[in-house]
Design brief:
Helix content is 37%, strand content 19%. It is α/β, with parallel strands linked by helices. The protein has two domains: 3-135 and 265-332, Bordetella uptake gene, domain 1 (D-Maltodextrin-Binding Protein, domain 2, 3-Layer(aba) Sandwich), CATH 3.40.190.150; 136-257, Periplasmic binding protein-like II (D-Maltodextrin-Binding Protein, domain 2), CATH 3.40.190.10. Strands 1, 2, 3, 4, 5, 6, 7, 8, 9, 10 and 11 form an eleven-stranded mixed beta sheet that branches. Helix 1 (13-19) crosses helix 10 (277-291). The longest helix has 21 residues, at 312-332. The chain is globular.
């Protein structure tokens, strides 16, 4: 299993304290008086989407691995709070301000949806705890499609982009749309010329197979079954190197096809506003132990996820940089700050 980033808890013990979202002096004093903190109630991991998606899988597998590795002393429940591309779940967590027993799984839509103007909450309204894995995008076509590689597709899109339709399950300006546009732009395709169709009802693969659309922008895991059945081909994944595992090891990267761009679907965990330094430190230590456990390594291998571990100031800086990159890309698409 490749490691994109490997960070120890001790390396960031001091830095992580700077990322605790506690601006109130009395709360800081209370944290100091507390010293160490540990949960007094069961924990709730929130997936801000329906069952079966990336947030849901990450939250459930993390909860399972925490318990199997005996890292936490309390139970962990996983709750789905779907709606608004994540906004419903974020609102729920925001209302738990000051209660450290709630965490939620997050990924690029936590940046994209607020930048689109579709949520009043952004990543800055929550407490970053740890990033845990990297997943990647995949661009699939029907097995009988005329394009044998990504460059052939992009060449046709540059000549007659309006006749080629890309489908994804996220809203315009969110995950599936942006990951495709990011790679296409690097290949010389005008981002504004790409026709993207949102199939948030889960019909994207069906639409690809019945010929209603030409390209499916999705996650790697969502393509495996149909590739094995010989129904679709994956033209590229957005990873820097080829992935490990049955079937996915045959997926070419955009980079090896001469397109010098990647798109990382990072996934991590955030807490509510107003967490104390001691509370953040507890979770940083817990997720560091999880990251190093055999149980979590088995989960990463099962889902072809890469290790991508960050905490503290490194995580905070990463989020700031990602937010700026996404803002610039959405501006090119005329989607920045525009509510659907």
């Amino acid at each position: 299993m490749k490691k994109l980033v490997s960070v120890s808890a001790s390396s960031f013990l001091t830095l992580v304290m700077l990322s605790a979202c506690s601006d109130n002096g009395s709360e800081e004093a209370a944290s100091s008086d507390q010293g160490e903190w540990s949960p007094t109630n069961n924990l709730e991991f929130v997936a801000p989407a329906g069952a079966g998606g990336g947030w849901d899988t990450t939250a459930r597998m993390a909860a399972q691995a925490f318990e199997e590795a005996d890292i936490v002393d309390v139970g962990i429940g996983v709750i789905n709070r779907e709606g608004g591309g994540g906004a419903v779940g974020w609102s729920y967590i925001a209302n738990q301000a000051g209660d450290p027993h709630y965490l939620f799984a997050a990924s690029p839509p936590l940046l994209l949806i607020p930048l689109n103007g579709q949520s009043e909450y952004s990543y800055e309204d929550f407490t970053p705890i740890a990033n845990v894995i990297a997943d990647f995008g995949a661009f699939a076509v029907r097995d009988d499609a005329p394009w044998q590689d990504l460059n052939e597709l992009f060449e046709d899109m540059q000549d007659e982009s309006s006749s080629i339709t890309v489908v994804g399950e996220s809203a315009p300006g969110s995950m599936d749309h942006v990951q495709f546009v990011n790679i296409a732009k690097a290949a010389g395709v005008d981002p504004g010329s790409i026709t993207y169709v949102s199939a948030q009802d889960g019909s994207a693969m069906t639409n690809l197979l019945n010929g209603s659309v030409d390209v499916y922008s999705t996650g790697v895991t969502e393509t495996i079954e149909q590739v094995r059945a010989g129904e679709v081909r994956v033209l590229a994944v957005t990873a820097e190197e080829r992935l490990e595992g049955d079937t996915v090891e045959d997926y070419p990267t955009a980079i090896e096809q001469g397109i010098d761009e990647v798109f990382v679907n990072w996934r991590g965990f955030f807490g509510p506003p107003d967490m104390t330094e001691a509370e953040v430190e507890y979770y940083v230590n817990a997720f560091t132990e999880l990251n190093e456990s055999e149980e979590w390594d088995a989960v990463r291998e099962r889902y072809s996820w890469d290790e991508y571990f960050m905490v503290g100031e490194e995580y905070k800086q990463f989020l700031e940089e990602q937010n700026e990159e996404m803002r610039l890309l959405l501006e090119e698409l005329d989607l920045y700050g525009e509510s659907e």
